[in-house]
Write a sequence for this structure.
């Protein structure tokens, strides 16, 4: 009885004997020794497919007790579901981006450990005790707040996506990355808890000439952006909570701005200063970067809003089809304009479309799930999804976007994604004409 | 700041009242509703009040720096990543050159070819550079680096000295090529449902299949180094 993987005494040990001596049992022990890297479930050698009549060690033993893992972790088999980066994209990892594994995610909320990262000078590991938020400039009463001050204000919780405007930026010229994680993973969605920015602005008393607000981080980049006062008073949050717990350091612990529906970089992380002014600041991150270069050499600045976008998350390059048969095609849609109104799916590269089912909840400026049953006949197919938002805006094709914006604008590629399905069920990132 | 100490005329007060009636509790009242926190001292405000406004240099501090001084600081603290003449090392940002490339197939946006405002350069160096040691430069060093980088881009002469008066006056060649009003939505499509395209015209123009650009999406992180 001491030959169990965990060394514990089994309950009702008689039936474990044959299993303990089977080759499968030994392979399980090997897998257990390998630890979190093991990706396959143990199977009984010679027993064919998993399931009955096999009995498994986890069914015939006492499991680990409470607080075995005081902060829970995903199952060992999920070890490959992680944020990933594209090493050739940036000079280093400190001013860089990682991508959420949206091909493996199940709902509209991104687990906090899988929320995409974007840093301009690395992750700041802030001591919340010493962190302060200063609000000043064109205000009646400048204010200095500790975190214990901030959590006293009336709080709200709201579910919103945050998307980097460079999501899809590598696909302007051509299909390049054969992966949903890398074509669309610069987006995540969370429930944010914090103080409406309007509450804080009322507290300091914005002077009549105050029209713009600058937000600045406590990171090494002192990342800063200017936002119009109207948006600040509308729906912005000073957030300290993310999916029910404190913000993760990667998302700005202990305090960040959340600007619903606008490009992610304006939701300044590690927020330490808010300054009210009468004009925008034209910071480096709103002139040299996060401006959109057009084919005529002109550039668009202050293109904050995220246009409506959708993508099929199953099937996708990472999640191919198996044999022909009935499948549920699944995907995500979102828009910075408010709510998703409709998503259509095409199996023939945009010749014919069918309306998909939207899954509740359909929330404003949040990820929305859609699905559609599909009887796949095993023939080649070109899968696309197209979202229409509550303003009537229709997600464009990449060809339509290129006609206006060329191929060098980097940001705000919200085009329809085409997945090529081959007869063997494999899936590839393609673009069509 | 001058604007903070400005006395408000009666008209402005009345305007605030009108705004308040529309916006509810969002704007100024006479008193704070909650009163949490403290009022920062002027010294506390000054210590963190680092921003410099791009279009007019509002917030530029006292001090000055020349192109020659900047060249020395740059060689010591910047050239490892940006190259001695701002040409950029590896994938680190190129700071100079690229004039006339913005309409090209491969544009080279740099301080000289792209940035609309010179004072933004002071602000960015002062808040974020050097990359591993931000906020370590004295104002004179930031001015000097600003002068040097502008000179690398042929935007100021070799005897230029940057300070709070001279820097905002430096003209930037690409200034007029920015628009600050978002023209989107700039596409318009009808959500056609059937026979929307000629099926024969649907051709694949590019595929990611076979390209070696995609890191693996299973197992450990991919550093994309040759195995």
């Amino acid at each position: 009885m001491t030959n169990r993987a965990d060394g514990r005494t089994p309950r009702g040990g008689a039936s474990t004997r044959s299993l303990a001596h089977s080759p499968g049992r030994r392979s399980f022990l090997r897998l257990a020794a390998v630890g979190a890297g093991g990706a396959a479930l143990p199977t009984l050698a010679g027993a064919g497919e998993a399931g009955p009549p096999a009995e498994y060690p986890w069914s015939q033993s006492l499991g680990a007790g409470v607080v075995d893992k005081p902060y829970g972790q995903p199952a060992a088999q999920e070890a490959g579901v992680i944020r990933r980066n594209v090493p050739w994209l940036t000079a280093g990892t400190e001013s860089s981006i990682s991508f959420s594994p949206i091909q493996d995610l199940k709902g509209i909320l991104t687990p906090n450990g899988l929320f995409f990262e974007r840093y301009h000078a690395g992750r700041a590991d802030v001591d919340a005790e010493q962190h302060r938020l200063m609000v000043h400039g064109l205000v009646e009463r400048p204010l200095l707040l500790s975190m214990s001050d901030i959590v006293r204000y009336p709080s709200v919780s709201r579910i919103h996506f945050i998307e980097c405007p460079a999501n899809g930026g590598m696909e302007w010229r051509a299909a390049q990355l054969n992966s949903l994680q890398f074509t669309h993973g610069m987006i995540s969605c969370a429930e944010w808890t914090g103080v409406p920015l309007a509450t804080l602005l009322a507290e300091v008393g914005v002077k009549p000439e105050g029209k713009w607000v600058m937000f600045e981080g406590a990171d090494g980049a002192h990342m800063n952006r200017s936002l119009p006062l109207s948006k600040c008073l509308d729906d912005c949050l000073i957030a300290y909570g993310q999916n029910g717990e404190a913000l993760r350091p990667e998302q700005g612990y202990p305090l960040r701005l959340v600007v619903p529906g606008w490009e992610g970089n304006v939701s300044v992380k590690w927020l330490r200063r808010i300054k009210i002014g009468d004009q925008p600041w034209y910071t480096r991150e709103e002139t040299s970067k996060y401006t959109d270069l057009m084919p005529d050499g002109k550039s668009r600045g202050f293109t904050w809003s995220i246009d409506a976008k959708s993508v099929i998350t199953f099937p996708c390059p990472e999640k191919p089809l198996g044999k022909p048969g009935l499948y549920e095609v699944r995907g995500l849609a979102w828009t910075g304009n408010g709510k998703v109104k409709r998503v259509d799916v095409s199996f023939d590269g945009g010749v014919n479309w069918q309306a998909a089912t939207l899954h509740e909840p359909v929330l404003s400026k949040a990820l929305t799930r859609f699905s559609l049953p599909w009887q796949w006949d095993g023939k080649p197919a070109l899968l696309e999804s197209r979202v229409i938002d509550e303003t009537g805006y229709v997600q464009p094709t990449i060809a339509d976007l290129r006609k206006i914006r060329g191929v060098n604008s980097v940001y705000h590629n919200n085009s329809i994604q085409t997945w090529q399905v081959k007869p063997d069920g494999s899936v590839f990132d393609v673009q069509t004409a | 700041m001058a604007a903070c100490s400005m006395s408000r005329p009666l008209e402005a007060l009345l305007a605030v009242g009108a705004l308040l009636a529309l916006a509810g509790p969002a704007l100024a009242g006479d008193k704070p509703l909650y009163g949490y926190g403290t009022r920062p001292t002027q010294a506390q405000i000054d210590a963190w009040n680092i921003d410099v406004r791009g279009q007019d240099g509002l917030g530029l501090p006292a001090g000055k720096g020349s192109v020659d001084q900047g060249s020395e600081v740059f060689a010591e603290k910047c050239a490892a990543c940006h190259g001695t003449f701002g040409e950029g090392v590896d994938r680190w940002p190129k700071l100079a050159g690229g004039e006339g490339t913005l309409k090209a197939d491969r544009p080279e946006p740099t301080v000289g070819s792209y940035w609309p405002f010179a004072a933004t350069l002071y602000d960015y160096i002062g808040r974020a550079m050097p990359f591993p040691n931000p906020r370590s430069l004295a104002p004179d060093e930031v001015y000097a680096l600003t002068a040097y980088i502008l000179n690398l881009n042929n935007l100021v002469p070799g005897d230029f000295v940057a300070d709070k008066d001279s820097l905002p006056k430096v003209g930037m060649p690409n200034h007029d090529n920015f628009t600050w009003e978002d023209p989107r939505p700039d596409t318009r499509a009808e959500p056609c449902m059937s026979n929307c395209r000629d099926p024969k015209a649907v051709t694949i123009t590019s595929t990611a299949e076979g390209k070696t650009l995609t890191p693996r999406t299973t197992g450990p992180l991919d550093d994309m180094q040759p195995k």
